[in-house]
Specification:
Blueprint (H helix, E strand, L loop, with lengths): L3 H13 L5 H28 L4 H8 L3 H8 L3
Helix pairs in contact: 1-2, 3-4
């Protein structure tokens, strides 16, 4: 189940990141980064609940298995 509020927020923030005003763009980028981090954590949890291995999750995220386990393994 996709959280459409998060997807909508990410889409809106991504649009704001393209603002001509650099201050507005930087604020949108910072918030976009926070929102993506939250969404990544939820999605990793969903993947683990669905039986995905740490190795597969790491491969999808482009990081090592150790890095993804360290970041999300104890939550």
């Amino acid at each position: 189940m996709v959280d459409t509020m998060s997807i909508d927020a990410i889409s809106t923030l991504a649009s704001g990141a393209g603002s001509e005003d650099p201050v507005s763009a930087l604020r949108a980028i910072a918030e976009l980064r926070r929102e993506l981090d939250r969404y990544e954590a939820v999605t990793v949890r969903r993947a683990r609940n669905a039986g995905c291995s740490w190795q597969l999750i790491a491969l999808c995220l482009g990081v090592s298995r150790q890095a993804v386990h360290k970041k999300y393994g104890r939550r």
